[in-house]
Design a protein that fits this description.
Blueprint: E1 6-7, H1 20-33, H2 35-39, H3 48-58, E2 65-68, H4 71-82, E3 88-93, H5 97-105, E4 109-116, E5 119-120, H6 122-130, E6 137-140, H7 154-167, E7 170-174, H8 190-193, E8 199-204, E9 216-219, H9 222-236, H10 241-252, H11 255-281, E10 286-287, E11 295-299, H12 306-315, E12 318-319, E13 321-322, E14 334-338, H13 347-367
Parallel strand pairs: 1-12, 3-4, 3-6, 6-7, 7-8
Antiparallel strand pairs: 2-9, 4-5, 8-9, 10-11, 11-14, 13-14
Helix pairs in contact: 1-10, 4-5, 6-7, 11-13, 12-13
Amino acid sequence: MSSDVISFSRGAPSLDIVDIEGLKAAAIRAFDEDPARVAGYGTSVGYPPLREWIAAKHGVDVDQVLVTNGSMQADAFLFDALVKPDSPVIVERPTYDRTLLGLRQRRGQLHPVKVESDGADVAAAQSLLESGVRPVLAHIIPNFQNPAGVTMSLQKRQRLLALAKEYDFTIFEDDPYLDIRFRGEDLPTLLNMDDADKVVFASSFSKTVCPGLRTGYLVGPADFIAKIAKMATNTYIAPNMLAQATIYQFAKSGALERSIETVRGALAERSQVLQDALHKYLPNATCTSPDGGYFLWLDLGEDVTVDKLAPAALKRGVAVVKGTDFVVDGGQHSLRLAYSAVTTDQIPEGVQRIAAALDDCRVSDSGS
C-alpha cells in the first residue's frame, strides 16, 4: 500500500504508541534472566511465568491457561476441538471476518444473531434455541466488538450464561480489547461470571503491546485446556518462548500498564476526532460511538454500495473495509473504520476523501 494512503483498514496500533524501547529492554532481560527456557523448545502450554501471570490476572488456576502464537491460533485450536461439519454455531452479525472464515473452513452451520447497541441480541439467540437449534458454540466479542464497536450489557451477559447452562453449549468469549476501555465502567467478563464451566476465554497482547510478538491465550476448564495442549504439541511442539518471555518481562516491569494507558489515551482521542469528522463531512451517515477498542461501524444509507465505494475510496487514497466482509449476508451499505493506526492529523483528511469517493459513486450511478 502506498505510503500516502490513509488507512482505516487495519486494527493495529500505530508505531508511535508502541513502546519499542521498553520491549527491547524486556527482551534483553528475558535472555539475561532465563536463557535456557528462552532459547529452548519449551512446552506447548506456553512460557511458564507468563502462564502464571495470566492465571493471576484472571483469577484462575494455572492449568486453565494455554498461551499460543497469537489469539488466532487459540481460535483455531478451539474450533478444531468443538466444530465439526454441520455443527451449529451462533455468531454475531456482524462479526470478525477471520472468525467467519475459520468457521466456514470447518463447515460449521452458522446461525447469525444481530448486534444491537448493547451487544448481541440474546433474545434472538434464545429463540433459536427454543426452535430446536443446539449449538456447540456461541462466539461472542463482548467488549468494543469487532467490527461494530459496541459492548455487551451486564444483563445480556447474565442471560447468555443462563442459556449456555440450560442448553449446554460453550460460550467462546473472544476478548482482545478487554483492557482498552477509554470511557465508562468496566464490566465483569463472562469468564469471571461463569459458575458452570461454560466459557472459554481468548485474548491477545497484540492490541495492548504490539501485534509483532504474536502472543495470545486461552482460559477455560482445565480438562479442555489439557485437550488443546495436546493439539498444540502436535502442531508446533511449543509456541514462541522468546516472544512470551519478552511480554512477561514487559508486564512484570510495569511497562505493560503504562503501554495500556498510552494506547487508551491515543485511541480515545482518535475515536473522538473520527466521530467529529464523520459528523462534519458525512452528516447523513450514522456511526457507533465506542467506549473503547479499535473500531467504529459506519452505516452510509441505501443509496450507495460499499462494493463501489471501497475501490473509489482507494483511488482517492484512503483504505477502508467493506461491511460485507463481516456478515454471512448483507453489509452492502456499511464500513468498518479502524482508528488505531491513523494519527489525529490524518483522520479529517481521510474522512474527506471517503466523502469525495461517495460523491464519485453517486455521479457514476447518475450517469449510468
